[in-house]
């Protein structure tokens, strides 16, 4: 209970919460000065916010040589631990781990069910997003479609870079996987689920000719990177 109160107190500050989200979505180290400049605050204020976030294990720090001589500078990165709160206490992580482990015991059939479920859920996310905003796909540009995908991605815990190479090729990546903890348990199953979910989102918006994952964080890559070829 003491830790719960401490976490809620630390994250109740809007600027501190924004800093936490900003760093959590990135995998490279950020300094006090980086945060001060990004949020237009004094370095001492930035340092206080970062220290508070480190106290609740939302961030972790390490000392990195700057290459400019002098002492190594302190850098902050997202913590390996996940900050979760529920009232009253609930262990949803345990439930998800048990569910994934149960499906894994079914082998290929369990994997097929997981992928089908992820794909259908991805499609439903697009449907719900459009319905909630009274939007239609008629006349929607490719850039607007990618924006829809980006907004849905944010709502389920990761960030998609809205960058289009040309009219038919869409490349995107994300540095923060919302399923990372589960993926440590069953990487093949979880990555299959995540890929199917993303593919369902895309195929609800586009006619997809090819959907390919080029890099995967599970394979020691710094990011998950995709290349999608669409015909509309």
Write the layout of secondary structure elements.
Blueprint: H1 2-11, H2 14-24, H3 32-39, H4 43-55, E1 59-64, E2 73-78, H5 92-105, H6 108-132, H7 142-155, E3 169-174, H8 180-183, H9 187-205, E4 208-215, E5 224-230
Antiparallel strand pairs: 1-2, 3-5, 4-5
Protein architecture, described:
The protein is built from nine helices and five strands; from the N terminus they run H-H-H-H-E-E-H-H-H-E-H-H-E-E. The relative contact order is 0.10. It is an alpha+beta fold and 232 residues long. 51% of the residues lie in helices and 14% in strands. It folds into two domains: 2-78, Winged helix-like DNA-binding domain superfamily/Winged helix DNA-binding domain (Arc Repressor Mutant, subunit A); 92-230, Muramoyl-pentapeptide Carboxypeptidase, domain 2. It has helices spanning 2-11, 14-24, 32-39, 43-55, 92-105, 108-132, 142-155, 180-183, 187-205, and strands at 59-64, 73-78, 169-174, 208-215, 224-230.
């Amino acid at each position: 209970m003491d830790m719960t109160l401490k976490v809620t107190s630390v994250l109740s500050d809007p600027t501190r919460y924004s800093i936490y989200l900003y760093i959590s979505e990135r995998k490279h180290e950020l300094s006090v000065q980086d945060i001060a400049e990004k949020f237009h605050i004094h370095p001492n204020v930035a340092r206080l916010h970062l220290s508070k976030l480190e106290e609740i294990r939302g961030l972790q720090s390490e000392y990195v040589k700057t290459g400019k001589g002098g002492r190594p500078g302190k850098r902050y990165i997202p913590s390996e631990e996940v900050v979760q709160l529920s009232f009253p206490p609930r262990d949803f992580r345990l439930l998800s781990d048990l569910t994934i482990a149960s499906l894994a015991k079914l082998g290929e059939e369990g994997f097929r069910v997981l992928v089908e479920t992820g794909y259908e859920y991805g499609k439903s996310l697009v449907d719900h997003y459009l319905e909630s905003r009274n939007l239609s796909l008629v006349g929607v540009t490719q850039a607007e479609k990618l924006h829809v995908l980006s907004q849905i991605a944010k709502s389920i815990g990761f960030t998609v870079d809205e960058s289009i190479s040309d009219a038919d090729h869409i490349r995107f990546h994300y540095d923060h996987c919302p399923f990372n903890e589960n993926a440590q348990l069953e990487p093949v199953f979880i990555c299959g689920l995540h890929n199917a979910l993303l593919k369902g989102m895309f195929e609800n918006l586009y006619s997809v000719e090819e959907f390919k994952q080029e890099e995967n964080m599970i394979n020691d890559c710094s990011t998950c990177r995709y290349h999608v070829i669409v015909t509309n």
